[in-house]
Write a structure and sequence with these properties.
Layout lengths: L24 H13 L8 H14 L3 E5 L2 H12 L6 E5 L4 H9 L3 E5 L10 H6 L5 E4 L11 H11 L2 E5 L7 E2 L2 E2 L6 E5 L12 E5 L2 H12 L20 H11 L2 H19 L5 E3 L13 E6 L9 H10 L16 H4 L2 H8 L18 H10 E5 L7 H16 L1 H10 L1
Parallel strand pairs: 2-3, 2-4, 4-5, 5-8
Antiparallel strand pairs: 1-9, 6-7, 8-9, 10-11, 11-12
Helix pairs in contact: 1-8, 2-8, 3-4, 3-7, 9-14
The chain binds pyridoxal-5'-phosphate.
Length: 418
């Protein structure tokens, strides 16, 4: 008689996990009040102004600029920080493609470096090997809401005079040595897209500590040069957020501290329990990661300790038990066609000539062995809503993984027979 659900056994769990987003009447009231106020202008909208202050304060940044998405936030941050057109920017290869797309959109060339297997964040030794005389900036991505080791980033940036633009798109409420993500470099970008821990469906935010960078970011975002009429050389776009979104974000933000607390407690409990299962590797604990926002929970699957079972077969079996684990990104970014076919092809096929990256790099020569192994064989992920439920939800995750491990012979046997 099969035991595993994938083979017809009874699944560990049939209930779904916590839903996302979490709307309630107070959100609807906040949006209704913003609608009825008639103050919809980007210039005078009171929720926009208040949210800029409140979210910048939450992250410990001096200045905050709302915009329409995380990708644009990163593009604006790169441009405002002065990572001049034509240069190269070092980007960790394990990230959402938007990190690198923002670099291209800012007229720069992404160069991909490896990540650390025990944090999934940028490997600064690998980043240093990517530095050339054209490198202008480094983009630490606080992946999943876990802070990058900024000491190493600061050393590299100081040595080579690089701008630091943080991809803090997962960093709401998170900190490194009690300093908010987004306040640690020259500028940073956040995302409020629908899956994010703080969301208005879409939306983005730029943080900066330098007044001039913030001023340039605000002018790029605004789409015109406003009070500097006629005298600005900043090339703008219309990247504005709307007042109604800001009202929703302010309402949602009231729940963020408590939601972050619940996620963190559950994630820590899960980490303790998963670390007892052979073949599952949890991320390194680091006291400098003072608050993590747990947007993506990451761990590694070690096939050799599951009798050679593939990561993807493991995921299928755990999914059948009712647990929504996923594989994460399936390839390092330089292997995506967008990059592997070369920047020239990207420009030609997209008619993308206004922002012309000034350097051409050979993506086929970029080797990131750790990220490659992670993507192809090891990464397993759980997304943030899973961590909003009761502790018993964590127990069911552990139970399902342990069940698959104990009965791995059923999967290996089935594979050999087919
Ligand atoms: C790491 C990272 N950077 C950038 C972005 C882009 O944000 P948006 O989708 O709001 O443009 C995302 C979005 O998922 C992301 O995960």
């Amino acid at each position: 008689m099969p035991v595993l659900a994938i083979n017809g056994g009874t699944p560990v769990r049939e209930r779904s996990f916590h839903p996302w987003p979490v709307p309630d009447q107070s959100d609807a009231d906040a949006v209704a009040a913003a609608v009825l106020s008639g103050e919809w202008s980007h210039v005078t909208g009171p929720n926009l102004r208040a949210f800029e202050r409140e979210f910048a304060d939450l992250q410990g940044a001096r200045f905050g600029i709302t915009c329409n998405g995380g990708t644009t936030a990163l593009e604006i941050a790169l441009r405002a920080a002065g990572a001049c057109v034509g240069g190269e920017v070092i980007v960790p290869t394990y990230t959402f493609v938007a990190t690198a797309v923002a670099v291209l959109r800012a007229g720069l060339t992404p160069v991909f470096c490896d990540v650390e297997e025990d944090t999934f964040n940028i490997d600064v030794t690998s980043a240093e090997a990517c530095v050339t005389d054209r490198t202008r900036a480094i983009m630490p991505v606080h992946y999943g809401g876990r802070a990058v080791d900024m000491d190493a980033v600061y050393r590299l940036a100081a040595k080579h005079e690089l701008k630091i633009v943080e991809d803090a798109c997962h960093g709401w409420g998170a900190s490194w040595r009690n300093r908010g993500l987004g306040s640690l470099g020259d500028a940073a970008g956040f995302s409020f897209q629908a899956s994010k821990n703080l969301t208005s469906g879409e939306g983005g935010f730029v943080t900066a500590n330098d007044e001039e960078i913030a001023d340039i970011a605000s002018r790029i975002r605004r789409g015109g040069d406003g009070e500097k009429a006629g005298r600005s050389v900043v090339f703008p776009g219309n990247f504005r957020m709307c007042e109604i979104q800001a009202a929703l974000l302010r309402s949602q933000m009231r729940r963020l501290p408590e939601q972050n607390r619940v996620r963190t407690e559950n994630a820590e409990y899960l980490t303790d329990r998963l670390s007892e299962i052979d073949g599952i590797r949890v991320l390194k604990r680091d006291p400098d990661v003072t608050k993590s926002s747990i947007h993506v929970y990451l761990a590694r699957f070690v096939s050799d300790e599951f009798e050679g079972l593939s990561r993807d077969s493991f995921i299928e079996a755990v999914n059948a038990e009712g647990i929504p684990i996923r594989a994460g990104y399936k390839a390092p970014l330089q292997e995506y066609e967008l990059f592997s076919r070369g920047i020239e092809s990207l420009q030609a096929e997209n008619g993308y000539s206004m922002w012309t990256p000034g350097t051409s790099v050979d993506y086929s020569k970029m080797e990131t062995p750790v990220a490659r192994r992670l993507c192809l064989e090891e990464v397993i992920t759980l997304s943030q809503p899973v961590f909003l439920g009761p502790r018993s939800d964590m127990d069911s995750i552990v139970e399902a993984i342990a069940k698959v491990r104990e009965n791995v012979g059923e999967l290996i046997g089935a594979r050999a027979a087919s």
